[in-house]
C-alpha cells in the first residue's frame, strides 16, 4: 500500500470557506495533542474567509481555489486533488464548505471525505439547507430536538452515509440565533470527538 493510500496516521485536508470555527476546533485539538492527527492543508473558495486566516495563523498551508482562480470545473477539481495528494492527505474534512466537490476528488477519496451538518440528517438537509435556514426549518417543524451529523460526502448534498450523530435539545424560548449558537458549540466538540474515534479505530470508515 502506498503512503497516500494509508489512512493512519490521520493526515487532514480541509475544505473550509466560512468562519472556520470547526476548523479551529480541530486545529486546536491536533496542536494540544488531544487528537492524534496532522493538519496538512486548507483549501477555501473565499479568499477573505475566517477559515483561510485561521489556517495561516496556525501555520497550515492554505490555498484559495474557486471559480475565479479556476473557472473550469474539471481543472479546479484536478487542482484540488493535486493539492490534497501533494500534501499527503489521507482524510478530507469539509468544515463549512458549501460547494460540491468534483468527480476526481470524490472518487480518489471515496469513503474518506467527511462533512459536518448542523441538524439530524436525513431531516433538514439537502440543497439550500445551510446556515440559519436549517435552524429556521427545525423551529418551523416544531421539533423538540435537533443535533449534529457527521457524514460521508457523496455527489449529492448531505446524502452520504451517516458516520456519527448527537442530539441537542430545542427549548420553548429558542430562536434561530440561540439554536445556531448551541448547535455550533456542540459541533466543535462532536467533530473532534468523532475524529478521535476514527483515529482510535472505534469508528471504521
Ligand atoms: C457549521 O454550522 C457546519 O455545520 C456547516 O457550516 C457551518 C460552518 O461554520 N456545514 P464554521 O465555518 O465552522 O464556523
How do you describe this structure in short?
The protein has 205 residues and is α/β, with parallel strands linked by helices. The protein contains 6 helices and 7 strands, in the order E-H-E-H-E-H-E-H-E-H-E-E-H.
Question: Low-confidence parts, pLDDT < 50 over ≥5 residues?
Answer: none
User: What gross morphology would you assign?
Assistant: globular
Order of helices and strands: EHEHEHEHEHEEH
Major β-sheet strand ordering? 3-2-1-4-5-6-7
- Please estimate the helix content: 25-40%
Mean model confidence by pLDDT: 96
Strand content: 15-25%
| DSSP helical segment count | 6
Structural class: alpha/beta
C-alpha Rg (nearest Å): 16 Å
Number of strands: 7
Bound molecules: 5-O-phosphono-beta-D-ribofuranosylamine
Biggest sheet features? 7 strands, mixed
Distance between the termini: 17 Å
Keywords:
alpha/beta; 20% strand; binds 5-O-phosphono-beta-D-ribofuranosylamine; 205 residues; seven-stranded mixed sheet; single chain
What's the SSE blueprint?
Layout: E1 10-15, H1 21-31, E2 37-44, H2 50-57, E3 62-64, H3 73-86, E4 91-94, H4 103-108, E5 113-117, H5 132-140, E6 145-152, E7 162-169, H6 176-199
Parallel strand pairs: 1-2, 1-4, 2-3, 4-5
Antiparallel strand pairs: 5-6, 6-7
Helix pairs in contact: 1-2, 1-6, 5-6
Bound molecules: 5-O-phosphono-beta-D-ribofuranosylamine.
